[in-house]
Amino acid sequence: MVALALVTSLLWGLADFGGGLLTRRLPALTVVVASQTLATVVLGAVVVATGAWSEAGERLWCAVAAGVIGPLAMLLFYRALALGPMGVVSPLTATALAVPVGLALVLGERPGPAQYTGMAVALVGVLLAGGLTLGGGGGVPRRTLLYTAGAALGLGAVLALIAEASTTVTGLFLALFVQRLCNVLTGGAALWAAARRGAPVLPEGGRELLVAALPSLAFVGLADVAANGTYALAARIGPVTVAVVLASLYPVVTALAARGVLRERLLAAQAAGAGLALAGTLLLAVS
C-alpha cells in the first residue's frame, strides 16, 4: 500500500510539472484536450479488454459530472502553472482535499481538532504564498491566485465524484474512461468554440510543435490516469488515511522538479506559505 501511494504522489507530481511546462509552449486548453484524448484511447482499450462495460450503472453519472468539471479545473490549473511559480501553485491546488471535507460536513460529519487546524494552516499558507502585495513586490499575481483557487475547487469536486463512481476495480476502469471521455467532449467543445471566436488554439508553427509534444502529452494524460488507479488501489488496501497522506505529497514532487529543472527561486514568505498549505492539506487528510 505504501509503495502504491508513493507512486501516486510521484505520478501526479510529474504530470503537474509536465502539464505546466507544456502550457508554456501550447495553449492550456489544447494541452488538456490533447492529453486527455490520448489517455481516453488507452483507457478505452483497457475497458474493452477487462469487460468493464458490465459495471455500468447509476453511479456512472458521478463520472459524467466529474468529466464535465474536470476540463475547466485542469484549464485553470495549467494557466496558474504557466503564470506563477510551480512551487507555490501546486501546493495551493492540493487544498482541493478540503472539498471532500466540506461535503462530509454537509452530510452531517463533524471535523476534529486536526481538521480545523488543517483548514486554518492552509488558509495562512494561501495568504503567505500570495505575498503581502498581490501582484507587486514579488508576490503572486491576483489572477494566478484566482486560477489556483478555482482549480482547487474543481479538482476537489472531481475527487469526491470519482470516489462515488465505482465500487470495484473494473468499475473504476469504466468510471475513469467515462470521466475522460466527457473531459474530451467538454474540452473539445470549448476548443472548437475558442477557434470559432478566432482565439489561437495553436501558436505559430503549432502543428509541428503539437506533433513533437505528443510523447509529453501522452505522458501527462497517462500519468494522471495511472495515479488515479494506484491511489484507488492503495485506498482499498488501506488504511485509507495513510494512503491519502502519502498520495498528497505530490506537490513536493512538482516543487522539486521545478527547482531542479527550471531553477525556480521563491521568496522566503512564499516558500513558507507553500509549506504551510501542504501541511494544512496533510492535516485535513489524516483527520
TrEMBL record:
Protein's UniProt keywords contain Transferase: no
PANTHER family xrefs: ACYL-MALONYL CONDENSING ENZYME-RELATED (PTHR22911), SOLUTE CARRIER FAMILY 35 MEMBER G2-RELATED (PTHR22911:SF137)
Name the UniProt record assigns to this protein: EamA domain-containing protein
Gene Ontology terms: cellular component: membrane
Family per record: Belongs to the EamA transporter family.
The entry's keywords: Membrane, Transmembrane, Transmembrane helix
The organism of origin for this protein: Streptomyces sedi
EamA domain sequence ranges: 2-129, 156-284
Key word Transmembrane present: yes
SUPFAM superfamilies: Multidrug resistance efflux transporter EmrE
Transmembrane portions of the chain: 28-53, 60-81, 87-107, 119-139, 240-261, 267-286
